[in-house]
């Protein structure tokens, strides 16, 4: 349903619960569910079969591909890409029953980061700005800004530019020419020193 009243599009097979916020220009496609309390920014695209829990915050211009569930404790900053079927956990000791109860762990994905298809992000970690997580990787610790991560568990195998190209030589992008320097938590664009 495209609605002039809401300013965003929701496919007729999807649900946006009362109390959820969805920003102008966002699109929620087939069989998705946005739960009460969730906040979705402007210009986002949520693919088929996406579930967003009530304690989730999604920034502006994010792309969340098919079959992704964002559970309580997940925060996506602006322009984050979540590939098809990537997984966010939110409890380090999950049990269907037992004395431990439920402890939600938080996960923050910083601006411009990309998570590949079928990657798993273990809760309690932060993925830095413009980092890129390879398909099928399992992230078990914090990821530096601009880090290129792959494997199980995920390890840094290089660095990437804001545009997504792998950096070469002296942290220079072969695609756009942007140059980087080492920073406290990964890399920073040279002009941002």
TrEMBL record:
PANTHER family: ACETYLTRANSFERASE, ACYL-[ACYL-CARRIER-PROTEIN]--UDP-N-ACETYLGLUCOSAMINE O-ACYLTRANSFERASE. This is N-acetyltransferase.
